[in-house]
User: Fold Acetyl-CoA acetyltransferase from Novosphingobium kunmingense.
Amino acid sequence: MSALGKAAITGVGMSDIGRNTGRPAIIHLAEAADRALARAGLTRADIDGIATYPGKAENSPGMSPLGTGEVRNALGLQTRWHSAVPDGPAQMAPIMVAAMAVLTGQARHVMCFRALTESSSQTAGRRASIAGAGKAQIGGWMGWLAPVGALSASNWAGWMATRYFHEFGMTREHLGMVATGERRFALMNPAAVMQKPLTMDDYLAARTISSPLGLFDCDIPIDGAAVVIVSAPDAARNCRLAPLEIEAMGSALRSQETWDQRADLTTMGAHDAGADMWCRTSLGPRDVDVLGLYDGFSIFVPMWLEALGFCGHGEAKDFIAEGNIGPGGRFPVNTGGGQLSGGRLHGFGLLYEVCLQLWGEAGARQVANARTGVCGMGGGFIAGSMLIRRD
Assistant:
């Protein structure tokens, strides 16, 4: 990457998000796109590439209602390159692919997007986010989980948490520090969907979802969209804001592509991707000012902290208890409220927030002098990590 210069993030945008908004996904997407373009100082005519995760999908209601075609048509884009990445380093995949595209001359400015209507798509009789639910036949590794009713990712995260608790003595109170810390950040973010304080007592009293995980250990389905614009090095210099250079990326995977067959269930694909990322830069965890770590379930946050080397294996509970990741901590995590309190945009919202921090646009929750950020997306076996910095 260094021989060609570094790809950069030049604009990010998020729609007005909410629960049961009733707004079509394309309206959310157009709003997020226009906000990202305004931040970058670009127009729709400047966008010559488009990428998304995972592409249009019908297997889970509202999870991915838009493909690149609908968005190109709705926004009137004339693209030279496009991509949808259903199989790759988690939700980070389209941003990584976009970085490679601009460095190889396939495009100058790539619009990467994620749009969801999971909240509006849920009904009393239809759960969103349960891939394959209601199908007569379910194949692949899911076929082994369906007979025992383990179709939800909460089940899979629950057994990982159980093993981690057993091995390292983590307790629900430790995960409660993750959830309540992110809620404190959310209260400083007017865009976050959860705007009521969350105490440890509230957290512990909530109903169990998949032991040991309770209600507030699970992220929140919403309607909304987020856009990240990735630009070529020379093109980035002409944008409105200082480019956020993509310093390094990691996407290694060294285990089976199932949640339940990893040799060590106290680790995830994040551990492979994180180690891979640090091999590509002279920077290290000590240089990072702000973190966006995938929190589809609270247990992922301590596992990502360990995967990225912010603490040793099994040490995350103490690292969290020392106050490192909450408001005022040395390594603040998910400062916009994360997916546990801000709303689930499958990682795009986490990167959006890291970018705001590095541009100094995070308002009351702004981390002082934030110049370098890391974002990790994905749970289970899939993961992608990215280190970005502002000169």
